[in-house]
Amino acid sequence: MLETTLDQGSDLNSKLSFDDFRKIIVEDYRVAVESRYVSLLGRKEVLTGKAKFGIFGDGKELAQIAVSKVFQKGDWRSGYYRDQTLAFASGMTSIYHFFSQLYAHPDVEYDPSSAGRQMNCHFSVRIIDEEGNWLDQTKQKNTFSDISTTGGQMARILGLGLASKLYRENPNLSYLKYFSNGGNEVVFCSVGNASTSEGVFFEVVNAVGVKQIPVVISIWDDGYGISVPNEVQTTKGDISEVLKGFQKEDGSNGFEIFKVKGWDYPGLCQAYERAAKYAREHHTPCIVHVIELTQPQGHSSSGSHERYKSKERLNWELEHDCIAKMHQWLIDSDIATAEQLNLIDEEAKDFVRKEQRRAWSDYNKALAVDASQAIALLSQIDDELVELPLKQLQSLTEPSLKEVYSTVRKVIRELKGKDIEGKGALLAWYKLQQGVNESRYNSKLFTTGVDGPENVQVIAPQYSDDAKFIDGREVLNLCFEENFRRDERLLAFGEDVGKIGDVNQGFAGLQEKFGEHRVFDTGIRENSIIGKGIGLAIRGLKPIAEIQYLDYLLYGITVASDDLASLSYRTFGGQKAPVIIRTRGHRLEGIWHSGSPMSMILGTLRGLHICVPRNMTQAAGMYNTLFRSDEPALVIECLNGYRLKERLPDNIGDFTIPIGYAECIRVGADITVVSYGSTLRVVEEAAMELDRLGISVEIIDAQTLQPFDKAHLCAESLKKTNKLLVVDEDVPGGASAFIMQQILEDQNGYYLLDSQPRTLSAKAHRPPYGSDGDYFTKPSSDDIVETVFEMMNEGNPDKYPSLF
Question: What is the pTM for the complete model shown?
Answer without folding.
Answer: 0.95
